[in-house]
Structure formats: C-alpha cells, structure tokens
Amino acid sequence: MKTKTLSLLTLSALLLSTSALQAEFDNRVENTNFTLSQGSLDPNNSDGNFYNYDRFRFRSDYTNGDFFATFIGDGVNYLGRDYIQSPTFKFVQLPEADVPFQTQTEFQDYGEGSIYAKLYRFYGGYEDVDNRLVVGLQNITMGVGRFWNPTNLFNPRNTYAIEPDEVFGVAAVNYTRHINETSDVMMVASQKADHSFKYALSYKAFLEYGDFAINLVTSNETLMAGYEFEANLGDTGIEVRSEGAYIENTLKTLTAQEDRREFFQGILGADYGFINGITLTVEGFYSSETFSQGEIFINYDSEIASNLVFSNLYLGASVSYVFNLVLSGGIAYIESFNTQNSRFISPSLNYALNDYNTFDLGAMLYFGENSSEFGLAQDSLFLKYTLAF
User: What separation, in Å, do the N-terminal and C-terminal C-alpha atoms of the chain show?
Assistant: First the structure.
C-alpha cells in the first residue's frame, strides 16, 4: 500500500491562504498566438503543416508583507487537422512535468484542433533581508549560459525552441540564505513523478574578479558537480562567463538495459553591448560524450535529457539590434561540429505596437546533410502575436 504524503503543491496552497484578508493581488492576462508554417518529416506530406498555436495564460501574484505567492495557469489550443494528426504532434504530447501530481489535462481533440489545460506555476514563500523560502511548482535557476546550461538539471532552457524559456516547473522546496552582501547558499529538495527526491546545494560568492558558484545535484539516477563564473573583463565592457558540470547518470539503452555514463560538459562565452544599440553574444559548448539519435529519443524523460547531445562541440552566436522604441530584431546561429557539420539559424523581428500588443516575425532554419544533427530537422516560419493586460 502506498503511503499518502502531503504534496508540495498543498504546502504552497497553504502559503497562498496565509493572511488572505490583508493580501494584495496583482492579476495579469496574456494571450500568445502563433501562426506557423512547418516542414514535415512525413515523405507523403511534401507541403508541410500550417497550423495555429494559442496559449491563454492567467497569472495572479499575491503579496502580504514578507509573504508572497504566484499562480500561473494556461489554456492551450492547437488548430490544424494535418498537424494534430502528424507524428510531430504525437511527440509534442509525450513530455510531462516530472512531479508527483498531474499538472495538465489530457489532450482533447475536436474537429480540426486539440485543446488542453495546464498548471504552469503555483508556489508560495517568504522573503526577508537574510532569507528566501519558496515552496511549490516553480523554476529553479542555475547556470550562466545564454545558449546552454549544463549545470541546470531542473529547468534547463531549450535554445532550439520558439520559446526557449517555456519549461516545465518542478515541485520543490527552495531555500536561500544570504550569508552576507557578497555570498549566499541555496538548498533545493524536489519531488519527482516516482516520489523519489532530487537535491541541490549551491554556494555563490563574489570574488575579487567576479561571481563564482559551486553547484551539486544528486538523485537516485544522477550525480552532478558543477561550477559557474561570471565577470567583467576589466574596463572593456565585455562580460565573460563559464559554466561546467561533471555528470554521472543511468540512461536507458536501445536494448532495454541501463547504462551508467560519466562525462563533462562546459561552456565559455562573452557578451558585449555596442553604443549604437547592437548586442553581441558568443558562446561555445563542449561535451566529452556524445549520444546517438536513438539514445536521445528513448531518454526524452531523463533528468539529463537536455545534456544528451549529438556532437562534442558547438558554437553559438547571436546579434540583436534596437532600431527604435518600437522595433527590434536579431539573429541566432549555432554550428554543430561533427563528422558532418550542420547549423541552426533563427532570425526574428519584434514590433511593439503599445504596452499591450506585440508582434514577432521569425524563422527556425536548419542546414546540413541528412545524416547530420540538424540536417533532418524541418524549417519553420512563424508569426507571434501577444496581447497582455
């Protein structure tokens, strides 16, 4: 018989109700709509897929003195018969938050579309000058990389996605103690879908030349020891950063057995903002181990899924430019160095009509031989419209 325990979600709900009569609430509604044209891997579909993705998001922030709480819930709709019947959409439905409770409903198909609802974030906490405690479905911040975060085994960003920072939350207790003005320690305990726990410990301090942190993460299947470093390069205006992780993890294999893997991953990057409004970011990524496409696919739900890479070496660069108060643009480029190099390019243009309405026009383009990392991926074009109030 399974033992019933008080979930972290319940604890966050209790924090939300604390002194509710004296609380201040800030509510926000946001609707994000994508119209996409996407290539298809189906040889019988040479025209690709044209579909619409819409996310309605409600956010409520609560504050009362040193106490706070946040609720974010989404309603998601896909519209496009060919897309929702495609193999790509079947794969979109596979990933779920690695937490011990349901955060989303089942996909419900209707006519030419499919719809579902999800709990994106729900947490509460307490913060004063020396302490910060957060309990519930939340985002855990680790790492300094702009393209890759090898040390973040909780909420790593997906740099190849249209919205890289739209990631699953984790059910966790996150406590930060500010030791003094230049150093703090963070402790995390998160509960996974199988009710086991993953723990993290991070110590961060400002040294003579910049910020330095040591990160440790451990669970039943993973051990990670990492570091982060970020500093200004003298008076040049260049910000440099580095992040590295030694990882041990048990992965599933194509023969249905488990394999213990040990490897190192690290990034080295820099940012520079020019006075004419151009910002340049460069970042390199190294992994001592590579993984086959089959291994990456069958371990899509692994704690280190974002660390499973096809190549030993990657180089990323991005340039952004602010044309005026309402118009900005940029382009990101990633090269995968392998026996057959391939590349990912993503240009974008942003127009802010006013404080409530913004438009983004962009593309995700892939180049390389069919057997290369990006060679089989299909190009996408999109128009994004966001209404927020």
Answer: 48
pLDDT higher than 60, residue 11: no
**3-state SS, residue 90:** helix
Neighbours of 305 (CB within 10 A): 16
What string of DSSP letters covers 17-49?
A: HTTGGG-EEEEEEEEEEEEEEE--S-TT-TT-E
d(CA 135, CA 18): 13
- Answer for the pair 156, 175: CB distance below 8 angstroms, yes or no: no
Percentage of the chain exceeding pLDDT 90: 79
DSSP string, 273-315: E-TTSEEEEEEEEEES----HHHHHHTTTSTTGGG--S-SEEE
Amino acid at the residue 255: T
Bridge partners, residue 174, by sequence: 134, 188
Tokens of 112: 């030419």
Q: Which residues contact 46 (CB under 8 A, 6 or more apart)?
A: 40
Name the 3-class secondary structure at 16. Answer: helix
Taking residues 376-382, report their average pLDDT. Answer: 92
Nearest 10 degrees: CA dihedral of 61, 64, 69, 71? -30
Which of 27, 47, 11, 55 is closest to 387 using CA atoms? 55
The DSSP call for residue 151 is T
130 neighbors 150 (Cβ within 8 angstroms): no
pTM, rounded to two decimals: 0.90
- Burial class of residue 137 (count of CB atoms within 10 Å of its CB; 0-12, 13-18, 19+): buried
128-169 confidence digits (pLDDT tens) = 999 999 999 999 999 999 999 999 999 999 999 999 999 999
Please say whether the beta carbons of 244 and 267 come within 8 A: yes
If one compares 285 and 4, the residue with the highest pLDDT of the two is 285
Average the pLDDT over 299-307 and give the result. 93
Q: What is the C-alpha to C-alpha distance for residues 77 and 82, in angstroms, rounded to an integer?
A: 15
Beta pairing partners, 91:
none
Helix ranges, 178-221 (H): none
H or E element, residue 168: none
Question: What's the whole-number mean pLDDT along residues 6-16?
Answer: 52
pLDDT at 16 over 90: no
